[in-house]
Each structure stands twice: as C-alpha cells, then as structure tokens.
Amino acid sequence: MIMANHSRGRQTMTTPTLAQTLDALTADGELSERHADGAVTCLACGHRCLIRPGRRGICRVRFNEAGRLRVPWGYVGALQCDPTEKKPFFHLLPGSDTLTFGMLGCDLHCGYCQNWITSQALRDPASEAAGAHPLTVTPRRLIDVALRDGAQVVGSSYNEPLITTEWAAAVFREAVAAGLKCAYISNGNATPEALDHLQPYLTAYKIDLKTMSDRNYRRLGAVLENVLDGLRWVHARGLWLEVVTLIVPGFNDSDAELRDAAAFIHSLSPDIPWHVTAFHEDYKMAGPEYRRTTARLLLRAAGLGREAGLRYVYAGNLPGQVGDFESTFCPRCGTRLVERYGYMLLSYRLTAQGNCPECETPVAGVWTSRPETVRLLGPGRPRRPGL
User: Fold this and answer.
1) Most CB within 10 Å of its CB: which of 46, 114, 234, 251?
2) What pLDDT score does 149 carry?
C-alpha cells in the first residue's frame, strides 16, 4: 500500500500489517444477529461474542464494521494433503488422503498448541513473526487441487474452523458437488447455528476434548459445558464423530479425569472412537519443566477407555510403542480389521459393507465400498499442495 508523507513531500512504501491484510480478505457473515444499536452477536462459536462497531470478537478475525459482521474469506493460511488417519480419523475411509485447509485465528489460546503460528494470529505477535500469512484462493481452486492430488476428503483444520464456518461451507459446497466427503477438525466449542450451516456438507467431525475440568478449560479460553454440548450436538446430527484427548502430564492425566472423559463419550455412544494422543513440548510449553507423554501413560489412558466400555480406543503420536492400540478390531470376535503403524495401513480386512469378514458384525464408521482399492503402507510423507 502507498501512503503519502506530506511533511517530506514524497511518497513512501509501507507494508500492511497482518491485521490489515486479513481485514481486507473478508465477507459479510451469515452467522450473526444484528442489533438496533449497531452491535452484532456472532453465532460461529460458543463464545457468542457481542461485538460493537469497530470492535473484534475473541477470535480477533471476526469484527463489526459499521453494524455488519465481517468474517474471513478467500484465503488459506495452511494447506496440505496427507493421510486421513493424521487428522486423526481412523473410521473415515482408512488409507485415503485428506486435503486439509485452514485460515488464521482461534477462539482459544492453548499454551501447548501445535498449530500456534496459524491459530494465534492477531493474538500473539510471535505468530506473524514466525510467518503467518494468507494465500488468496477460490473454493473451486481448492477442490481442483484436491482432485489433482487424489484426495477423497476435504477437511478444515490448522486454526479453529468454527470461526471461519462461512468460508468452509463455500469450499465444502464445491467439494460435495465434486463427489468428495467433508470433515471438520475442531475444538468443539460449537453452536447449533454453525452446525446447522455446515450439516448439508459434512460427513465427519473430530473434536478435541481437552480436559474434563472446567477450571482448566477456562485457562485455555473455553467453558467445559459448551464443548460437551458441542459433542452432544454433533452426535445428535448423525455426523461421524471421533474424539481426541491430548494427554498433557500434570494437566489432564489423572485417572479420575480420564475416566470421566471416557464415561462421557460412552454416554453418547460406545461406538465413538476415542484417541488418546501424546503431548510434546511446543509453543509456550516448550521448556525443560514440561514432560512429554510416555507410552506407559498412553497405555494407561487407553486401558481406562476400554474399561469404560468404549469399543474403539486408540493411542497416538508414538507409533510402534502402544501395541494393539493403533489398530481396529472387531468389537464382537476380536479379529484385527485394520492394522496400522502410525498413519500407515499395513492391512485392511473390512468387507464392502463395512462388516467384519469373520463374524459379519457391522463396524461403526464410514468405509469404502471397494476394499480392494485401499492403499496399504501409506504415502510415507505428506504432500504440500501447490496452488
């Protein structure tokens, strides 16, 4: 942008800030209620921010411009095509790839966020310094990339997709028209309005259940009951749901809390997969005082999930160290149906109907009708698509 410097009688070039760049990449938001005094209530996430003219919501990327809610549009802050298991979804087309896009910003501020460069944009100056920036693109172009790279799923992640729901819906509309499935990778701090907006396009939804302590959730910027409601609403809408709990030593790893998490998931359905995954030092929790999650701790957490009656419990981020908790088994006869090492498939035995080949028990999930096409041993490395 060119700015006149009249005091010196010449023009100087200045670089727009990240906030100025992102504010230009916006559209009028559909998930909002307008008020007579010019304020708007944003309906994208559980915060339901009341935003007055000239102010921003908690996420910083949705703002009130002269009585209208402006929302992110027309760019990605991250884009990658990699295994669907990495999301993680273990019961959504195993062996497939997902083209995953994200924007910038989040409604939470987790100190251990592994996507903090994208999620903490406009909240933490370190995000911009570390390289957070938008790349303009159209929904149609993203789907062209997905088809070119052989993806079967299009997912939104890397930041919190709920705060960019209008843009995600535009991308998903193109994806569904092209015969692709769509997924949200989210913190679950949802609203019925946002889920209603997305439901025509979504097949699957992954939610991070970060803790069963409301006090700890508030430290991250959310309310426990709002996330539990999000889980209830997603399940009630019939979307395929998988739940992830990142086990952070000293934060959410007590037996009592893990049992509470497993019991809540079971109360919705014993068929919901629960992934307990390993924390590693990142962002503001990267010092020597923070301990990585051990395989022993993951195995303890996974065992508590099984004791609670969950049929599909997985332990992640430590490939080869957690025994059978990387694979999928028939809940009736115990036959190994999908054998995994990390994100790679070693074997796949489900029938075209999604049943166990030994006892014909239906296995909950979204499975391919052409099991002979399932890719084994995986791609090895994620692909970073070019636009």
Assistant:
1) 234
2) 97
